[in-house]
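does this look right to u?? 5'-deoxyadenosine version
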Amino acid sequence: MTSILSVVQPAAPVARRYYIETWGCQMNELDTQRMAGQLMVQGLLPTRDPREADVILLNSCSIREKAENKVYSRLGEYRRFKEDREHLLIGLCGCVAQQVGERALKRVPDLDFVLGPARVGELSEVLNRRRAGERVVATGFPAERSYDFDTISRDGLFKGMVTIIEGCNKRCTFCIVPSTRGPERCRSFEDILEEVQHLLDFGFVEIELLGQTVNHWKDPHQDLDFADLLDAVARLEGLKRLRFVTSYPRDFTLAMVEQFARHENLSPYLHLPVQAGSDSLLKRMGRGYTVGEYLPLVDALRKARPGIALSTDLIVGFPGETDEEFQATLDLVEQIRYASIFAFKYSPRPGTAAPRLKNQIDDDLASERLQILFQAQKKIQLELNSELLGQEIEVLVTGDSKQPGTQMGRTPCHRIVHFDTFGEPSKLGSLQQVEITDAKPHSLLGIRRGQTSANPSLLERPSVLPVLRG
Ligand code: 5AD
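got this back:
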């Protein structure tokens, strides 16, 4: 017999949940935040366990083959969840989605839809079409795109990422980005400032401007370039740290360098991918600059902002790379003394020119060169970090460290610091003076020295705030 209770009591509502796995660059991270926002508007909540998700999105990266393979193995894992959860929807998003398009639906029979990076704003619509029965492929680069910064589910409470330019018009011979992210497209000066202001009003203290060639930004309607934009953004009240990624060396003008001297809140940190240390390799890579042009840029930056931390990307094992060419890369790293490097083994990508070049390099040799580079860099980083010993540095607090009683944060140069809080944790997003007591190659250790300028609006905010409202 059915009890009266079970008849009259409504069943507890079951929340629908989403799970997004993200690979790759900051643009992908931001795309994930944009997709999460749309899912929340549809009434879905996040979960950390893909097995209880109703929608799973794989936001993929195709910059190297390894990244691409990972996403397929993950798809194989997740599609099995459909055995218990028939209604589960799985979407392939990001750069692999753009690259393979329709073929992904054939290769993975349980895949529900494919969504390219330029179509992220259409996720809600694509989901609705799928629920109505269609297996959608939304790729390509439409002229009109939806971009609603008010429904981005920002990760964290103090750093906001803002896209200013999408795509890339360069033709570096190794790089797949122009075909996955499409041609360059700049947002307008007004749109960008409006979004940054929106974040600052909300209490964000750090802004990161994003683009594949971020410093190639130009306003689509007025005579304004990236130097003008930096100048305008840096002047906004409440902005403590302004950063941007990724800069293309050839497009970095002296007017941009000047901004580092003009604005203290422009973080003394710049990622400036050089890729290789010899002109012959740079030429084969199609980079359009020489080492002789790159070095004066570094000098100018160091003059404009003494102590500026530089980081770079490097590729080893590029087709035809000789011992001498590799040595030149090593020499450049020793000469410039980067605060950090991101070095990769060359990986041939479909649709690019480099796989057709002569003398592809043996994988073992490339691995060996990569290790040599990492060893050299580790020593440099330890030396550079050791120079900071005893200094008191302003640290933006980003979270707890593993050790009880310690927190972590970033110096203005973006170095990671783990510091002792003496049992009184600082508010996340606040700025604290930390004395550096120990240096490691990849981080610093320190102790907090008194409270500085904690941001009041951050202190008052609730600890969880997934979606921003205007
Ligand atoms: N193989 C290896 N590394 C690559 N990168 C881009 N394309 C490739 C490739 N085919 C590296 C570059 C770039 C960074 C994001 O990834 O160094 O700056």
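The first helix runs from residue 4 to 8. idk if thats expected tbh
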